Amino acid sequence: MIHFVLLISRQGKVRLTKWYSPYSQKERSKVIRELSGIVINRGPKLCNFVEWKGLKVVYRRYAGLYFCMCIDEDDNELEGLDIIHHYVEILDRYFGSVCELDLIFNFHKAYYILDEIVIAGELQESSKRTVIRLMSAHDSLVEMAKEQASSISNMIAQVTK
Amino acid sequence: MALSSMRGLSVFISDVRNCPNKEQERLRVDKELGNIRTRFKNEKGLTPYEKKKYVWKMLYIYMLGYDVDFGHMEAVSLISAPKYPEKQVGYIVTSCLLNENHDFLRLAINTVRNDIIGRNETFQCLALTMVGNIGGREFAESLAADVQKLLISSSYRPLVRKKAALCLLRLYRKNPDVVNIDGWADRMAQLLDERDLGVLTSSMSLLVALVSNNHEAYWSCLPKCVRVLERLARNQDIPQEYTYYGIPSPWLQVKTMRALQYFPTIEDPNTRRSLFEVLQRILMGTDVVKNVNKNNAAHAVLFEALALVMHLDAEKEMMSQCVALLGKFISVREPNIRYLGLENMTRMLMVAEVQDIIKRHQAQIITSLKDPDISIRRRALDLLYGMCDVSNAKDIVEELLQYLSTADFAMREELSLKAAILAEKFAPDLSWYVDVILQLIDKAGDFVSDDIWFRVVQFVTNNEDLQPYAAAKAREYLDKPAIHETMVKVSSYLLGEFSHLLARRPGSSPKEIFNIIHEKLPTVSTSTIPILLSTYAKILMHTQPPDPELQNQIWAIFNKYESCIDAEIQQRAVEYFALSRKGAALMDILAEMPKFPERQSALIKKAEDAEIDTAEQSAIKLRAQQQTSNALVVTDQCYANGPSPIVPAVGPLTLVKVPSMSGSEEHTAVDQALTQSNGTLTKVDSQPPSDLLGDLLGPLAIEGPPGAAVQSEHSAVTEVEGAPSAVDVAAIVPVGEQTNSVQPIGNINERFNALCLKDSGVLYEDPYIQIGIKAEWQAQHGRLVLFLGNKNTSPLDSVQALILPPAHLKMELSLVPEIIPPRAQVQCPLEVLNLHPSRDVAVLDFSYKFGTNMVNVKLRLPAVLNKFLQPMPVSAEEFFPQWRSLSGPPLKLQEVVRGVRPLPLEEMANLFNSFRLMICPGLDPNPNNLVASATFYSESTRAMLCLIRIETDPADRTQLRMTVASGDPALTFELKEFIKEQLVSIPTAPRGPTTAPPAPPVVQPTSPAMALTDPGAMLAGLL
């Protein structure tokens, strides 16, 4: 299973963290510190796997951003790498040629999308189209709620409350 | 583009990004945190939109690495918001900020459940996602049934069902009982017929988890898995959106093949044939291509197929095909493929018939040892280690030694340990072994643990032919200008013992040897000086005729250290000085060390232990355990200590019988099988202590033939002399009786008996250590925590705790640190799982060293039958039909017990209650009788009701008639025997029956009298 997912920039800034195994606050910071050091300092032409404390970290760099995923030692490493790329492709399709700034200002969207792809540390959906479809459904639900909130009747209700 | 619609959030993120330095950033973040805190304080004025915004800001700040220790409540409270946008934020932020152990989550269980069983599909999805990501045990207990319904009902859309499958997987991991319902396996099989690939992928993950624990229940899923795989491999009926770089869902293919690896075999020839066809197609049809993503996906499938082929014991031809593929992979340019090629080749070593084919790739693997990527180097090292045997040991070990000088620090320790183990296991001759270890110390002394040089000394001492060679080698190394301290230790030890064998060689006169060793003395630490002093004493003894000049020189050194602050050095100096004046008697006292008893190498044992520790229930590792070790430990030696005590390695499953439990003659079939495979029972305990330190450093001080006059001078001597004989008789030493010089405080048996009745207390105590226990029991699971408290101001070292579980308990002890610091207490959790009813008792084999005292105790652990009982009140309407339906043996057993310790009826009732057997008054009309009931939990019986009736004779309280009934014959028997034991020899619990509180309704009353013996208080006092 996936124990956690980390997105770290080349400068070591954290862009997203998602924990599927129970790590305490302290452990989380420690893991991030240790791993970002290891992953960022690896050269470009090396393999995408790092053995780490009896687990394995599968990572891949996209521009200045490292997508890391910690899996069990005997899990299929390439399967993990495929999940990372699958996630990146969906982000790309959703944001339209995604860049780091998209993920910084819309970090909550990155979380929504991840939740549609992985649950309980396992892959949930391998169809990009399905995920994108669900995301636009979410977005329109939020839009609808916003419109409702700003509609006149609602405003009156707010005032008279 | 869906940019953030929350302006405040965007502004804040920009602000943080524009901070020129970390300090500014912290100021900005602190300001924002202050702002959020005040806004949350007067929550009244907060609109849902604002609340949402602040919660997002909190998450962002948290991600930046700042402590966010408030506002969790607000995040959780958003979950119960009525509108989607707020609810969604509540769910997502909660599952990012909190983990399953967080108390606030409990508050949300009800809302979450309402969302799951409610009609709103989007709410269901949100709730399932959160529970799937951070749900804990409590969620498992209260939500599993609802989640199951969602998964198997076809009235819900795939989008809900796939989430339900993974949510259930999470809950199953937290509590495996959630799938213990009738017909679950069939439901699971039906799920595999699912057309929607999203649901099927999630369900397959669930299946993998289920079969990894228990494949037996899921045989019906096997052919379905094969069918899924065929469908994917042939690309039949796979929607375009589920192909990934032209490959039909590689993830589902991998998961399906993973599930298949948990079934031991595939018996049905048709299924097997179809599967092999698919596998063959995968093996043949995968090439390394340009597109890296396509490559990754195709090889993910290929490597899983390789693992499955290996697991299925394919024909040799197919296996060789796999090795050929892997051989190709380890030399390709693509580093991922190289890495995986090496990793899978290591796994392939399990297959005996291809080992020779793998050896053909040795040169390429050695090249990989120099790969620029440390991940790949590690794999290469592992593979070389695994493929090493007598035929290639020399090459491989020499390669490792050569690599050692250039290897990065991160790998040196592992590298030197592996080289040492291989040299020992496969040495073609012993002088080569000595060479290797000395080179190892020379090149990487910092990474050579004491175990390694102790082992060399042991080999040399036990092999006369080797002694002159080893001494000469040691002498050579001393000529080098700067040598590692470990080299000083080992060479001075060897020269002290054996330098007289070199006497005629140039540069090896006693005086020269002394001088060259003494040159090193100013450079070494206090732990080495005692070894040097021993060497001097030995040189002195070997110098015949005595050389007065050398004698004076050495005496001067002894004199100098007589006032040394280090007790060990001081004692040796004083004793050697006195001894060396005894003239001829010195020859006897300082004679050569006797041979060491043969034993399993501490190194190899360490390596094996480490492997067992990490062994999880993976298909590959399960397989690995079935393989027999091909280790060839060098054992061609003669023994000074009587006939060769070769002891079979004691596996972790060794059966231990505790003598004090009488009448447990019948073993289950499993027990018998174990006994046979492990040799006779009595050998179990005859394993000599694996700690070499006790042997080596202890006797270094003084060594003489048994019965020498000095024996009484030094307490260590008696202990040392006692050691070999203690080893010989250890097999029949009953548990609880030790030959240690350290006496326990308090009665071990009494402590054990008391702990059988309560859940926390002291298990063992002596002047140095206190072992406390705290236990929690829930159904068939137990969690014990051992509290190891060091009572001294100096550390306890070589601490070892080994659990010897009886066949019916599965026990897992977490890592016990080797050293307990002064006045410190360490906690070691121990997980217990009761498999079936039995009265056998688990034993903790505990040892530690304090100063020169090696203490080893074997303690019974209070994971006894009654801990798995739960008091259960039954009414007359429930009792009598049950009682009648369980008619006669073997479900209902009756026995007249004589020799009972007379007890008033009320106290007997108390006793029963304290064993969690609940007395049910009023069921039996006869006031002299007792009726009790309880539920017993184990894996085999599940929850099972037990009923007991005791008929006493008011005229003769020493006898009674007992009837025990339950739905399981073994349980009935074991429970009956258990109660009998308790009644016949009632344990003398610390609180006498007279002070027992009257009829406690549930177990574990905490009477004030117990406060004094409360381990918490006592242990707290230590800290």
From TrEMBL, chain A:
Its main location: membrane. It holds the Pfam family Clat_adaptor_s. Residues 1-140 form the AP complex mu/sigma subunit domain. It is found in: Cytoplasmic vesicle membrane; Golgi apparatus. InterPro entries: AP1_sigma, AP_complex_ssu, AP_mu_sigma_su, Clathrin_sm-chain_CS, Longin-like_dom_sf. Keywords: Cytoplasmic vesicle, Golgi apparatus, Membrane, Protein transport, Transport. It comes from the Eukaryota. Gene3D superfamilies: 3.30.450.60. Belongs to the adaptor complexes small subunit family. This is AP complex subunit sigma. The lineage of its organism: Eukaryota, Viridiplantae, Streptophyta, Embryophyta, Tracheophyta.
From TrEMBL, chain B:
It comes from the Eukaryota. The keyword Lipid metabolism does not apply. Gene3D superfamilies: 2.60.40.1230, Leucine-rich Repeat Variant (1.25.10.10), TATA-Binding Protein (3.30.310.10). Subunit of the adaptor protein complex 2 (AP-2). Adaptor protein complexes function in protein transport via transport vesicles in different membrane traffic pathways. Adaptor protein complexes are vesicle coat components and appear to be involved in cargo selection and vesicle formation. AP-2 is involved in clathrin-dependent endocytosis in which cargo proteins are incorporated into vesicles surrounded by clathrin (clathrin-coated vesicles, CCVs) which are destined for fusion with the early endosome. Adaptor protein complex 2 (AP-2) is a heterotetramer composed of two large adaptins (alpha-type and beta-type subunits), a medium adaptin (mu-type subunit) and a small adaptin (sigma-type subunit). Belongs to the adaptor complexes large subunit family. This is AP-2 complex subunit alpha. It comes from Hevea brasiliensis.
